[in-house]
Amino acid sequence: MSDHSEAPVAPVAAYEPPYYVAVFTTVRTQDQSGYSETNARMEDLVKDVPGFLGMDHAQTPGGLGITVGYFRDADALTEWRSNAEHRAAQKRGQAEWYQSYTLHVAKVERSHGFTRAAG
Question: What residues does the ABM domain cover (predicted)?
């Protein structure tokens, strides 16, 4: 997804299980024409899906990108997967932006988090 340099540096909160994650791991091509605009649109669009909980992103210096989307239930994930604009972006990604990718979907059965107190 995008570089997210303006995004806060904090992971998505731990939610009460069960919920679902979609882990999208990518290596992008050299030509990224139109990618940033489409990515921003997808990030705005997914927020409108009832049951969308949040998204984490990471990018290695070598070019491996990982995006994890969190969804309250399978219906929310199905709604996102079947969204017409999202489907069109997926096709364009395969045709232009991704050298390779994998998608893993899992049901989260355990979740916890930690935040260091300020001060």
Answer: 19-92
